[in-house]
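User: I'm curious whether this sequence folds into something compact or stays loose and floppy. Could you predict its structure so I can see for myself?
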Amino acid sequence: MNNLVIGIKKFFTNKNTVTVVGVILAIVVLYAGYNMRINQAITPVTVPYATETIKARTQITEDMISTMEIPQSMVTDEIITNSADVIDMYANGDSVIPEGSLFYKRCVVSRDQLPDSIILDYPKGYVLYNLDVDMASTYSNSIYPGNYIDIYLKVQNAQGADGSVADDRIMVGKLLSNVKVLAVFDSNGNNVFANLDEKTAPAQIIFAVPEEYHILLRKAGYLRAYESEIIPVPTAESLEDEPGDVTLSSEDLRNFINNVTAMTEEDLSYTQQ
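Assistant: Here's the prediction. I'll summarize afterward.
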């Protein structure tokens, strides 16, 4: 037994033996690592691809995609590998996804990330209106997309009920109710609430109203002789289960606006309804 132990010790203390064993172990490690890398590179990964050409700003539905297997080595950080991350998303505003193409992260965005996403968020027959605002008129930037506002109108030097006009006469009233805010932009056209870490001041709020009320708002905004001002006022309408539709709140204000501006045949058709 002692002779066996002595023999083993001599074997492992021999420099030539140690060198040979080290070389063999290194070869085994290199071979194992090489095989592992090769297997990883050729192991197929299932990824989604487009079964038809998808135009910019088009919603990607389940019937527009299928899956294929590609080698792991072809998968980069930019390739989307999960079909769930594609379905119901949109092709970016500057991207066309060709038939047979894989889906890349820069080409697939959510609806809110589309540059023109607000045009998808209002009913047919409505017209967009952009109202100039500031920190004061938005209640220290407290008007958010999805909120509802009422639209008030202030005019100065308005004619009184007796027909008289006084320089200090001011008329204020609610013109429209239940107007949904679609977006809030800063002076550079950026979404104010896209990055809450950056404090940006609101410059415009975007909403949509029926064409009849859109014309009224445009007219009201051009009443420079009356120093008109369109004022947004937040409401709690968004908390309701079924928020109400946009409605005209004051026939008197509508009549005033129409009386001090030129009427078109379209205006007459609205007032006769």
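Summary: The CA atoms of residues 161 and 252 lie 11 Å apart. The longest helix spans residues 15-42.
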